[in-house]
Amino acid sequence: MGDKLFHRSQISPDVLAPEDNSPVAVLSPEVLSRCSTAEARDLISALQAKQLRVLPLGILRAAGVETISLAVPQGQTRELLPTLRLSLGHTPRLIEVPGETLAEAIFLAYSSDEKALAQSASELPELSAAALGIAPAVEEPLSTAKVPRFLSALMNYAVSKQASDIHIIPRLEGTFIRLRINGELRDQARPLGSLALHQQLINRIKVLAQLDTTQHQLPLDGQFSIAAGEKRVGIRVSTIPTLHGEKATLRIIGHRRAMELEQLGLDPEALQALRSMLEVDEGMLILAGPTGCGKTTAMYALLTELTKLNLNCVTLEDPIEAEVKNAAQTCISPESGFTFEAALRAVLRQDPDVIMLGEVRDPSSARTAFQAALTGHLVITTVHAREIPEVFTRLKDLGVDALTLQQALRAVIVQRLLPALCPHCRVIDLDGSNRRGYRLYREAGCHLCDYSGFNGFAPVSSVYMKSDVTQSRLALTLQHSLERRLKAGMISVKQFEQLNRSME
C-alpha cells in the first residue's frame, strides 16, 4: 500500500480511511505526508496541527455532506473526536497511526505547503558533520544553483506574507529562518541543512548586497532589490558574527502601500491632530514612539492627504518604505555624504510646501528642520521617545531651545501598537469583567489568527496639541487611550496591566 500511495498526489479515502477507524498499515512519514492534500490542510493551520497532533488527509464529499479524513496518534481517537467535531465544521474521520510517524509527517506535509519556499528548501542537501571539518568531507559539494533559488523563494514568500524582516540564524543544528510579521517573530521551519549550508546562504546574500564575502569577523551592511510581482522591493542587509557563524537580517522595504488616515485605527484626538496639519501652512508635527509603533505608517497616511492639496511635498528618508503618489521622495545616503542635514539644505532650495523628514537624529538636522518650520514650511518628522515629556527632553538634548519649540511645534503624537484580540475567537474574561464592572475579553485562538488569539494591532496614543500661539494642551493620555481599547474589547486585562506597569 505504501508504494501505491507514494506515487499518487491525492489519497484514496477507501484505502486510507476504513469505516471502523482502525489503524492503517505502517507507513513511512514521507508516504503519509504525501497523502495529505492542500485542500485539507487549508482547514487546519500548521500550528493547530502540531498542537492537536493531527494531520488532515483529504475531504470526502457525498450526498451533500463533507467529511475530512485525519491521521491521529494511536489510542487518541476518543479523546480527539469531540474537539475536532467542534472546531472543523466538517464530520471528522480518524485514522490512527504511530505517534512518531505522525509527528514527522505533520512537519513534512506543512513544510511542503509553502509552495516555492518549501520546494526550493527541499532541494537543499543535508550536510553532515563531515562538511564542518569534524571529519573528512565525503559528501557532494553543495550545488550553487540551489542556494540562489531557495533565497529568492524565501524573499518572495516573505513579501507575500507582508513580513518586515527575515532573520537567518546559524545554530549547531543548521539554519533557522524567522520572519517578523505584524511585529511578531515567527519560526518558519525546523533547521535547514548545516552550518556549511548556512555559510552558502550568507555568501549569496553578500554577493547580492555587494559585500565582502571573505569578511566574517565584522558586521557588514548593504542593500539590493528584487522583483516581487509587478514591482521591485528593496532589501537592506545587516550581518553580524555570532557563536556559530554570521547571522543575517534582511529588512524588506518599499513593499507597503500608504494607508488612508481613517485606516490607521487611531483615537479621535490623534486623528484630529493629524488632520489639523492639513489646515496650516507652517509648523512642525512630531510622531514619536518605540521602533515598530507605526510612526512611519502614520506619516505616509498624512503625506498622502497633503499631496491631494496640490502642494509640493518632498520626503527625506532612509530608506524609502512606501511610494506616495505626487510626492518627491529622496533616499538619504550617509555613506556618500548625502546626509539628512545636506539633503535638508538642498530641499529648502526646491520650493517645498511640505517636508517629511524620516527622523531628527542630530543637533544640526534638528536646527535646520525647526528653522524650516518657522519659515513657511510644514515639517513632519519622527523622534524615538516613549512619552510626550521624553520628546521634549530629546529635543532639548538636540539643542532645540524652548522659544523655538514654542513657536514651531504644532502637535506631538506618541503611539504604541499592541496585539489586538482576534474578534473571531476572543472569549469573555469573567474574572476581569467582575472586577471592573463591564464586559472584558481575553484571547482564545482560531484558524483565522493561527491559534495565537491575536489578529492585527490596537494603537494607543497620547496627543499634545497647540491650538494657537499661546494655548497648548495634553489632548489625550496613553492611560485614557489604553482604557478605551480595553472597554472596546480590543485588548485583554493582562495587556492593559502590562503596559500600565511599563509606564510607571
Q: Give start-end ranges of low-pLDDT stretches.
A: 1-25, 122-144
Number of strands: 21
CATH architecture verdict of the largest domain: 3-Layer(aba) Sandwich
- The CATH class name of the largest domain reads Alpha Beta
Q: Beta-sheet strand percentage?
A: 25-35%
- Class computed from helices, strands and strand pairing: alpha/beta
Structure commentary:
The chain folds into 3 domains: 2-113, 2-Layer Sandwich (GMP Synthetase, Chain A, domain 3), CATH 3.30.300; 116-128 and 143-255, Beta-Lactamase, CATH 3.30.450.90; 258-502, P-loop containing nucleotide triphosphate hydrolases (Rossmann fold), CATH 3.40.50.300. Helix content is 34%, strand content 27%. It is built from 19 helices and 21 strands. The strands form 5 sheets. An 8-stranded mixed beta sheet has the order 14-12-15-16-11-17-20-21, with helices on both faces. The radius of gyration is 27 Å and the shape is globular. The chain starts with a helix and ends with a helix. Mean pLDDT is 79; it is low at 1-25 and 122-144.
Write the layout of secondary structure elements.
Elements: H1 2-6, H2 13-16, H3 29-34, H4 38-41, H5 46-52, E1 55-62, E2 65-73, H6 77-88, E3 91-97, H7 99-111, H8 116-122, H9 146-160, E4 165-171, E5 174-181, E6 184-187, H10 195-208, E7 220-228, E8 231-242, E9 245-253, E10 256-257, H11 268-276, E11 283-288, H12 295-307, E12 313-317, E13 322-323, E14 327-331, H13 340-347, E15 354-357, H14 363-373, E16 378-383, H15 388-397, H16 402-408, E17 409-421, E18 427-428, H17 430-436, E19 441-442, E20 454-466, E21 472-476, H18 478-487, H19 493-502
Parallel strand pairs: 2-3, 10-13, 11-16, 11-17, 12-14, 12-15, 15-16
Antiparallel strand pairs: 1-2, 4-5, 4-9, 5-6, 7-8, 8-9, 17-20, 18-19, 20-21
